[in-house]
Amino acid sequence: MKELLNGIIDLHIHAGPSVAKRSVDAIEMMQEAVDAGYRAAVIKDHYFPTMMSATMAQQHFGQEKTQMFGGIVLNNSVGLFNLNAVDAACAMGAKFVCMPTVSSKCHINGHKGAFLGAGNTSAAENPVCYLKENGELDANLIQVLEYMAKKPEVILYTGHGTAPEVDALIHKAAELGIQRILVNHPHFLVHATYEQMASWAKLGAFIELNAGVVKGIATLSEPVDISVVGKMIEAVPTDRLVVDSDFGQKVNGSPVDGLYRFICALMKVLHVTQEQITAMTKTNPAWLLGL
Predict the structure, then answer these.
(1) CA angle 72-76-80, nearest 5°?
(2) CATH code at position 109
(3) Cβ neighbours of residue 251 under 8 Å, at least 6 residues apart?
(4) Predicted model pTM
(5) CA-based Rg of the chain, rounded to a whole angstrom?
């Protein structure tokens, strides 16, 4: 396990503090990452920016060889496509800006109240669909993308929109010159086709393969069979794939353990090579983070 994970980068970890129940907080995740020999860990929260937690964990519990980063997710809790919130996040070192997740109409319709990462909040979500019926993107979203085009070090995470939303988002991002794009679990909730995934990769996006949605690896009401992951690997070039955990939910346990078990399954079940694993867990994520 130590040998396989040494130097690895996980771009998608849900670590507390959070209004949702988490298996680890930022400091515990940093300690696990250091022990496992991680090069970097990126923590994400659906409701609140994570730069503060990441910075504190890094300064007080990190090591030079292991870094922790955070970012912001544009849900209702931060004012959706709030340019001031994005600007403040980037000023504090945000490594990613993520499109709506729990506030996305696609997410709300898809989970129907059974989302493991749901927070203990009382205000109702206002469902968001940022692609209008006429095919135009939300004007405030475009303003955020234009801002991000001037921040080449920041990664655009696509979030939990529908495949048409994500498609329009990636095309606009590419048009504006945004180079660092990570398509979040297109095989889960987004329901993108393999052809769409391949087309997004050709536009410069990286496609995410995450442990947290795969049958036998994580607890999920409707998990994805690992054969789907195999078809994604066939459809998208290795240099455009990223493997991460998407762990941190209370029921799923350690993100380090989940990522390790997923990598083992990729190698044993799908016969993914060590060279491919290195590209998807180290080389490609390192480029996205600018390391």
Answers:
(1) 60
(2) 3.20.20.140
(3) 23, 116, 219
(4) 0.96
(5) 17
